[in-house]
Amino acid sequence: MSELSVKHLLGIKYLTEDDIQLIFETADHFKEVLSRPIKKVPSLRDVTIANIFFENSTRTKLSFELAQKRLSADVVNFSAGQSSVKKGETLVDTVNNILAMKVDMVVMRHPNPGAGVFLSKHIDASIINAGDGAHEHPTQALLDAFSMRERLGDLGGKKVLIVGDILHSRVALSNIFLLQKLGAKVTVCGPQTLIPKYIASLGVEVEHNLDRALVNADVANMLRIQNERLDQSYFPSTREYVMQYGLTDDRLSRLDRVPLIMHPGPINRGVEITSSIADSEHAIILDQVSNGVAIRMAVMYLLAGKQ
User: In the chain, how many domains are there?
Assistant: First the structure.
């Protein structure tokens, strides 16, 4: 298969396993490009991409921008905070104004779940969902699984543990969809208040005891406590959370086998994970960051080919 089955990357649930493998193979190629002295290719020289972020983002936005520059695309950055959206302009009007400037692709982060799907029905450009509320974050899941595959090979049958605030996490949902398509077994772990009621219906295991969950895990993906999304108290105190669900040196020292440690960032050091573990040889957090550029290059390159 040499092209994607979709015109947009709106969520992992719309991708086939062949799509995922094609993205990974293309990212392997771009990873090799990124290791060269000259890290640029002319692949998207005639393509204009608009980055439209209605929510704050540092790492995802930078990663997309860097990927676009490496592909020689023309880039337009749009921040909703300083725009006519503040004056009441609708999402479709905002994007249509940008498309009137002959933009081929839109990378969008939006606080409302389904914003990308809504937009894809109204405009012609390819849309990449860079996070829609607490719904999906497909490129993060792709770079996470790509990073696991680099270390563990085929993910079929591998046991992946996702720990923390599952309720508010678009990363968790996209990861669950993607890992299951690749045949991995997923367990989620966190306080009862931060595990959505429906999650077991997705075919994942639910475990509230982190020590038990870590015993058989090949990978532990530690999610950030999203204080900005917590509108009420979901656990007694940060100290209590660390005692129950923080990845500490003491906790790892009791394991016969230490799993691969991952974190989508930004890290609350000393909360989800201690500094010493985040910086240890068991952690592949910086690999995730560099793989993010290769994955986003692959996605944009493949979607540009669909136009």
Answer: 2
